[in-house]
Amino acid sequence: MKTNVSFPGLGIGEIELSKVAFSLGSIEVRWYGIIITMGIVLAFLYAFWRGKRNEGVKSDDIIDIGIVTVLLGVIGARLYYVLTSLEQYDGFLDAIAIWEGGLGIYGGIIGGCIGILIVCAWKKLCWRKLFDMICPGVMIAQALGRWGNFFNGEAHGYAIGETTRFYFFNSEFSLPSGEGTLFHTLRMGLEKFGTWAYYHPTFLYESVWNVIGFILINIFYKHKKFHGQIALMYFAWYGFGRMFIEGLRTDSLYIPGTTLRISQCVGLACFLIAGALLLIFSIKYRGRTPICQAEAAAAAPVAEETTEEWKHEETTLFGKTLDKILRKGKEKNEEDEENE
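Now predict its structure.
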C-alpha cells in the first residue's frame, strides 16, 4: 500500500510515498527498517560518547551493553506490540514480521532495561550510571524512528474536521501564505480511507517532543547531582508527552474490556513515578555539588600531589647527584694534599 501525502502549509504538493526503499532481488528493504536501524546506531554512538566523556565507562563495556540492549530491546518492543494486539495476527510468521511495522516503544524500553541490568550485573558496573548515559540516546532514536511510521502511513492522529475541537486552528492560525495552517501542515491520503483529509501528524508531535527533551536533558547533564537523575528525567519527560499525544492517535492499543489506552496509562505511570522520585532525590541531594564538578575537584588534588611527588623525587635525585659530585671533589682534594 502506498501513502499519498501533502504539506499544504509548507507549500508542498501531493507526494506518493512507498514503504520500500529499494529491492535486492526478491528482498525488499523498507524505509521503516532503515530508519529504525539509523536510530539504533545514533543511540549507540551517543552512549559511546557520553560514556567516555562523563561516566568513565570503557569502550568494550559499551559495546557489550549495546549488543545485549539492542537485541532485547527489539524483542521486547515486538513482543509488547504483539501481546497487546493478538487479534491482528494469524500465525507466528505474521507475529515476527517486524519489517511491516508494529513496535511498542514501552516494550523496547523494558527489554533494553533488562539488557542493561544483565550486563551491569555481569561486569559489576553501576546500572544507574549506565541508564543516565543511554536514555538521552534513546530519545534521539525515538525521534528519528517515528519517521519510519511516517513512511508506513501509520501512527497518525484522527481527521480534523469542522466538528472537532481542533478545527478552530484552521481559521484562527492560518499561515501567511494562506495555503494551510501551522498545526495542519500534514495532509495524508491512505487507501483505507479513500479520501483526502487533514490528520494530526502525531508521529511528528512525538518526534519534536523527543528532540526538545534531548536538548534540555543534555544541557542539564553536567549539573546532575546523583546517578539515575538523567534517566528519571527521561521517563518523566517522555511519559508526560506520550500521555497527551497518544490521545490523538487512531491506532491506540486498549486495555481489554475498557476504553483506556495502554500507552496513555503507562505514560501517566512513568510521569508520576519518575516525577515523584526526582522530587524526593532532588530534595535529598539539594545541597550536593554536581557529580561532574565533584569528580573534577577530587581529581585535582591527586594530580597536584602527583606533581609534587615528582618534583620531590626530582629534587632528591638532583640533591643526591650534587652530593655525590661534591663528595668526589672533596676526596680528590684530600688525595692531592696527601701527595703533596
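The chain is about 60% helix and 10% strand.
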